[in-house]
Amino acid sequence: MKPHAGINGQLVERDSALVSVFDHGFTVGDGVFETCKVVNGEVFALSRHLKRLAKSAEIIGLDPVDAIKAKTFVQELLRTDKALIPQLARLRITYTAGVGPLGSDRLNSKPTLVCVWDPLTPPAKSATLITSPWPRALGQAAQGAKTTSYIENVLALRYAKSRGGTEALIFNDAANACEGTGSNLFAVFGERVLTPSLADGCLAGITRELILEWFEVTETSLTASQLLHADGLFLSSTTRDIQQVAQFDDHEYAPTNALVKRWQQEFKARANQNLDP
Fold it and tell me: Does pLDDT of 79 surpass 90?
């Protein structure tokens, strides 16, 4: 049995999965996506991910996402490939403008919906952050959307890894912390936890959203100086849950922060109790 991919409601063997070379998601990055965690064959927080996918599509003016059909499509893929999917996997849902011209204009085309999974390696115990040299401009047309136009994140992460980091930290053009290339940032000051607000340009991460609901967190602007004076930092994302930061540029933090450890344990317990919170 070979793994499958889902394309526009149809499941096909992954080796035969095709999308048009004229798809606007391929030619100009005209699309949105979600990355989900699959645990024992079930998607964690799928309803929240599909809600954000629909919101991202709305922001960039794509046709509305049919969340019910998308959910059924995802479940069919995972059910079909159940024997192949490892205990921990990653699911990617991509939604694009469909076939279009080789330029910025759109046609009145049917959108493309693709679902595919791959094995997910458990995250490292801690992360090393490197400041990206490229600030995030605020007030952009697609701010708040998780788009397939990810080249800024690709280059920032490449820059960080070339300097021994595992994640890049992006600041905005007002010199406030924004986010990682695939993560949200939190700073710990004793028992107080702060995180950049959405107004600072960060994406409304699903794990971030759950942390804000389950714990006491203040959204505010954070400068590099404040981060260097924090007792600790941690990142959140679908593939990390809560991951402590060991180092930010040349500044090292205590190897274990009691609050971060406590929140990691509680987050895991809550997530295990309800896979679609």
Answer: yes
**Residue at a domain's end among 103, 119, 135:** 119
Split into its structural domains, the chain has a count of: 2
Question: Looking up tokens 């600790």, which residue turns up?
Answer: 232
pLDDT at 1: 87
Q: Which of 119, 137, 169 is the last residue of a domain?
A: 119
Calpha distance 3→269 (Å, rounded):
31
**What amino acid is encoded at 219 in this protein?**
E
pLDDT of residue 210: 98
- Residues 50, 147: one domain? no
CATH number, domain containing residue 23? 3.30.470.10
pLDDT tens string 221-240:
999 999 999 999 999 999 99
Model confidence at 174: pLDDT above 90: yes
CB 63 within 8 A of CB 118: no
